[in-house]
Specification:
The complex is a heterodimer of chains A (454) and B (87).
Chain A (H helix, E strand, L loop, with lengths): L21 H4 L3 H7 L14 E7 L1 E2 L11 E2 L4 H19 L9 E8 L7 H14 L7 E6 L7 H9 L4 E7 L3 H7 L5 H13 L4 E8 L6 H14 L3 E6 L7 H7 L9 H17 L4 E3 L2 E3 L17 E5 L4 E4 L4 E5 L3 H9 L5 E6 L2 H10 L1 H4 L1 E3 L5 H13 L3 E3 L3 E4 L1 H5 L1 H7 L3 H16 L13
Parallel strand pairs in A: 1-4, 1-11, 2-3, 4-5, 5-6, 6-7, 7-8
Antiparallel strand pairs in A: 8-10, 9-10, 12-13, 13-14, 15-17, 16-17
Helix pairs in contact in A: 3-4, 3-11, 8-10
Chain B lengths: L1 H15 L22 H14 L18 H16 L1
The chains are: A alpha/beta (454), B mainly alpha (87).
The structure holds iron/sulfur cluster.
Chain lengths: 454, 87
C-alpha cells in the first residue's frame, strides 16, 4: 500500500453497499420464497430505526439526466389504478408475515418519479394502507417529493398535511432557464416560486430541495447564483446531486452531438463543488452530510431522511430498494411497472435482484458511510478492523480521529466518494466493475441495469 | 508482444491515475486493489485495450480483479485473446 495518496479525479458519493446488480444478483421466481423466508421470524431487537420508502414511478416529463425508474404519466394513466391496488397489496403481503409485527416505523418517505403527481385520494389510500398495516404510531416524518408543477396545489398540500404528511421536497435543479430546457426540466423558474408559495401557504413548514451541479453548460458563476437564490427561499435542507454523464445515456448522445457548449471536466467539477460548499456556508447553512446543507434553525432530525442509510429500510413500489441491517437482506423490486403489478397479482413479492449481506459487509457499509455522515463514533464502526486504512487517510489529511470519533477533514469533504471507495472491499470493487462492464455491453443504464434514458 | 501490452497499460494508467501521480507503475504494481484506478477506470482501461489490441470484446467472466490487477496480468489476458484469434 502506497502511503501517499493524492486524489485527482472526484468520485460521486456512494450511498448503498454492497451494490445490487441484476446480472450478478438476479432472483428467480422459484427461489424467492426461500429468499423472503426471513419475513416469518420477528425482526431482532436493534437500535436501528425502521424506515419506509414508497416509489411512485410516474412523471409528467422525463428529464434526460435522470437514472431513476419512471414512466411518462400521460401514456400510463390506465395503469395508475392497478398500480395503487398492487402497492396496497404489497404492503399487506409484508404486514401479514411476522417480521414487522410490533416494529415501530420512524419515517415514511415518498420518492420516484413524482409522487405528488398522484391524485390526493390515491396518496391517502396508500397512506391509510401503511397506517393500518404497520405500526406508524411513532412516525416522526412523512415526506413526499414533487416537482415545480405538482407542488403548486396548496389545497392538495393541505389535505395531505391533514393526513399526516409533514414534509415535502422539490427538485429545483437549477435557476438557469436555458439549462433547464436542455436537461428536459419542463417547469420554469416561475413555477419553482409558485410552488414555494404554495408550500408556505399550506403551512407545511418543513421542506427541502434538490439541486444539480457538474452539468454541461454549467459553471461556478451559475452555481453561486443558484446557491444565493436557494438561500433566499430558506428550505430546511438542500441535497446536491452530482450529474454524471453515463455511457449509453441520452445525455451522452446529446453531448456527442454537440448540443452543449461546455462539458464538465474534473477541474470544473471540483470548482463547482467548492462553490457549493463556500456558498452555503456563507449563507450560514452548515454542511451536515457529504452532499447536504441544513438551515441552521432546522438541523437534521434524528428520524429524518438524512439518517436513512444507517437504518433498516423497507421499500414498496417498482425499483424500490430494501436494505435490512437486522437480517442482512439487500434487494430491489422490478424496474418495470408491468412486471411489478403482475407479480403482486400472482401473490409473489415483486423482486428482481438481491443478495445476502454478511456481518463483514455490514461493517464495510458502516465505515463506507463515515464520509457521508462526515463524522461517526468509533463505537459505530469496527474501528480496529479499518484502523490501518483510516490511518492512511489521516496521514494524507482526508480523515481525522479523536478519542471517540472518526471523521473527514475539510479537505476530505471534497473527496468523500473517493474516501468511500478506498474502503470498498476487493470483492465489491470487482462486482461493481463487472456490473458496469455488462451494463455497457448490453446498452443499459449503470444505475439499475435497465433502459432508463438510454 | 507482452512488453508492448504492458507498456500500453502503464501509459494509459499513468494518464488516468486516480491517486498518486508520483507513483511509479511497475509490471506487477497492483492497480486496482490499491485503488490506483477505480471500477470506472477499469472499464475505461478495458475499452482502451479492446481498441488498441483489436479485441472485439472481453468475456464478462474475465472481468475479475485478478485478471485486471497488474499490467502483467492484464497483458496475459490480452495475449490469451490474441492467441485465440490466431488459432
Ligand atoms: S428528475 Fe424527477 S421529474 Fe425529472 S424524470 Fe427524474 S423523477 Fe421525473
Amino acid at each position: 500500500m502506497n502511503d501517499t495518496i493524492d486524489f485527482k479525479e472526484k468520485l460521486t458519493n456512494f450511498y448503498r453497499y454492497p451494490s445490487i446488480c441484476l446480472f450478478q444478483d438476479g432472483i428467480k421466481k422459484d427461489t424467492q420464497a426461500e429468499y423472503m423466508s426471513f419475513l416469518d421470524k420477528p425482526r431482532i431487537k436493534t437500535d436501528r430505526q425502521q424506515m419506509v420508502y414508497i416509489h411512485i414511478p410516474f412523471c409528467s416529463y422525463l428529464c434526460n439526466y435522470c437514472p431513476f425508474y419512471k414512466v411518462p404519466e400521460r401514456s400510463h394513466t390506465a395503469m395508475i389504478e392497478p398500480f395503487v391496488k398492487a402497492l396496497v397489496k404489497e404492503i399487506e403481503m409484508y404486514a401479514e408475515r411476522g417480521f414487522f409485527k410490533g416494529v415501530k416505523i420512524t419515517n415514511i418517505n415518498w420518492g420516484g418519479g413524482t409522487p405528488m403527481l398522484l391524485g390526493t385520494e390515491h396518496i391517502i389510500t396508500i397512506l391509510d394502507a401503511l397506517y393500518k398495516n404497520l405500526d406508524c404510531s411513532e412516525v416522526g416524518v412523512v415526506s413526499i417529493e414533487g416537482d415545480a408543477f405538482s407542488l403548486q396545489d396548496k389545497d392538495k398540500l393541505k389535505a395531505l398535511k391533514a393526513h399526516g404528511v409533514t414534509r415535502t421536497s422539490m427538485g429545483i435543479q437549477t435557476f438557469n432557464e436555458r439549462l433547464r430546457k436542455k436537461l428536459g426540466v419542463l417547469p420554469d423558474v416561475t413555477d419553482v416560486y409558485k410552488s414555494v408559495k404554495a408550500i408556505e401557504r399550506a403551512d407545511f413548514g418543513e421542506w427541502g430541495c434538490d439541486i444539480l451541479y457538474n452539468c454541461p453548460d454549467q459553471n461556478v458563476t451559475e452555481i453561486r447564483y443558484n446557491v444565493d437564490r436557494i438561500a433566499e427561499l430558506s428550505p430546511w435542507v438542500i441535497d446536491a446531486y452530482d450529474l454524471n454523464i453515463s455511457p449509453n445515456t441520452k445525455l451522452q448522445k446529446m453531448v456527442d452531438a454537440g448540443k452543449f457548449n461546455t462539458i464538465p471536466n474534473n477541474i470544473s467539477e471540483i470548482n463547482m463543488f467548492q462553490a457549493l460548499m463556500e456558498g452555503f456556508e456563507g449563507h450560514g447553512y452548515p454542511q451536515t452530510r457529504s452532499v447536504n446543507w441544513n438551515n441552521p434553525e432546522h438541523m437534521p432530525h434524528e428520524n429524518g431522511i438524512l439518517n436513512v442509510f444507517n437504518s433498516d429500510l423497507i421499500s414498496f413500489g417498482p425499483s424500490g430498494r430494501t436494505f435490512l441491517y437486522s437480517t442482512g437482506k439487500n434487494y430491489r423490486n422490478h424496474t418495470n411497472l408491468e412486471k411489478y403489478i403482475e407479480d403482486i397479482n400472482n401473490g409473489l413479492f415483486p423482486l428482481e435482484a438481491g443478495n445476502d449481506v454478511t456481518q463483514t459487509q455490514l461493517e464495510e457499509r458502516d465505515i463506507m458511510l463515515v464520509p457521508y455522515f462526515l463524522e461517526r463514533k468509533k463505537t459505530d464502526i469496527n474501528y480496529s478492523r479499518f484502523k490501518e486504512k483510516i490511518d492512511i487517510m489521516a496521514h494524507n489529511d482526508y480523515m481525522y480521529t479523536t478519542d471517540d470519533s472518526v471523521g473527514i477533514t475539510e479537505k476530505g469533504k471534497m473527496w468523500a466518494g473517493n474516501i468511500q471507495y478506498f474502503f470498498h472491499s476487493d470483492d465489491e470493487m470487482g462486482r461493481m466493475a463487472k456490473s458496469m462492464f455488462k451494463s455497457i455491453q448490453e446498452k443499459k443504464n449503470l444505475f439499475n441495469q435497465d433502459l432508463m434514458n438510454v | 508482444m507482452k512488453n508492448e501490452i504492458i507498456a500500453a497499460v502503464k501509459s494509459f494508467v499513468s494518464a488516468k491515475v486516480v491517486y498518486n501521480e508520483t507513483v511509479k507503475i511497475e509490471d506487477n504494481t497492483e492497480l486496482w486493489k490499491t485503488g490506483l484506478i477505480d471500477s470506472m477506470g477499469v472499464i475505461r482501461l478495458i475499452s482502451h485495450m479492446q481498441e488498441v489490441f483489436e479485441i472485439e470484446e472481453f468475456d464478462y467472466n474475465d472481468i475479475t480483479l485478478d485478471n485486471f490487477n497488474t499490467p502483467n496480468s492484464i497483458a496475459d489476458l490480452v495475449l490469451k485473446y490474441k492467441t485465440q484469434i490466431k488459432q
